[in-house]
Amino acid sequence: MLSTVVDLLSCPVCRASLELADRTLWCPAGHSFDLARQGYVTLLGGAGSNFRSDTADMLAARTRFLDSGFFDPILSAVSRQCPPAATILDVGAGTGHYLAAAVDACGGRGVGLDLSKTAARQVSRLSDSIGAVVADGWQPFPIADEVIDVALSIFSPRNVSEFARVLRPGGTLVVVSPTPRHLGELVAQVGMIGVDKDKTERIGNSMTGHFVRTERTLVEYQIDLGHSDIADVVLMGPSAFHLTKAQVDAKLAALPDPMTVTASVTVGAYQTGLQTDS
């Protein structure tokens, strides 16, 4: 419910605090934002970016795949980074699976930001302790300064300076990033987009000046996926912008059913307000 987290939000136009009255968010300068019937609010400001939001088909595939439990070890690793009663922000929240698991595990509350209205509708249905906001993750977040305990960046681009602004001193940014081995069996066989071998180094470099890494955990294991599961995991991510369901199904016809696939990600924890060694 948005009322649970309205104190964390800020006006995307003037950055002032917001109040909720009669299903409308208001700031002292008079800017107003109506809640959608499903309970989320759109807080878009600025010129926007070229970042593509998830489609309804991508979100449906992700829901089916995550509901099947294949990535539960990753969800658990993320949740372990959240202290009791934490205030959690998930940017690029998608279906909200990771945010919901973290909020449930710590007994806190959360805000899910995503550029997709379809995603926001789904996040708004998760829990009374979670609010959903349509926002551009490459623009200033419509979140007040230093109000977030834990921020999540799960398989998503990272607006590092904005994460640093909204986190409390000593707050934690949790970054989940695939290794080059992640779903590697499917890259050549199905034509998925692979992972750059320098991705981990680039993430670390982007944090310089804002965060210090305090922990990095490798979560790697084998999963047996049927053809329908493989289609979902391929089409729930960026490969969906390059492959059609028909193309994936045609490639799957020549593959074993089920097929053993590697899940391999790093879960990194980065903190604000820490001093680096000189």
Description:
The structure is a single chain. By secondary structure, the protein is of the alpha/beta class. 28% of the residues lie in helices and 26% in strands. It contains nine helices and eleven strands. The strands form two sheets. An eight-stranded mixed sheet has the order 4-7-6-5-8-9-11-10, sandwiched between helices. Strands 1-2-3 form a three-stranded antiparallel sheet, with no helix packed on it. Helix 5 links the parallel strand 8 and strand 9. Helix 1 packs across helix 8, helix 2 crosses helix 3 and helix 8 packs antiparallel against helix 9. It is globular and about 60 Å long. It starts with 18 loop residues before the first strand and ends in a 7-residue tail after the last strand. The model has no long low-confidence stretch (mean pLDDT 90).
Could you estimate the helical fraction of the residues in percent?
25-40%
Could you name the ranges where pLDDT drops below 50 across 5 or more consecutive residues?
Answer: none
Count the beta strands. 11
**What can be said about the biggest beta sheet?**
8 strands, mixed
Structural class: alpha/beta
Terminal residue distance: 45 Å
- One letter per element, helices H and strands E, the order comes to EEEEHHEHEHEEHEHHEHHE
Strand content: 25-35%
- As a whole number of angstroms, the C-alpha radius of gyration is 19 Å
Spatial shape? globular
Rounded average pLDDT: 90
Number of helices: 9
Lateral arrangement of strands in the main beta sheet: 4-7-6-5-8-9-11-10
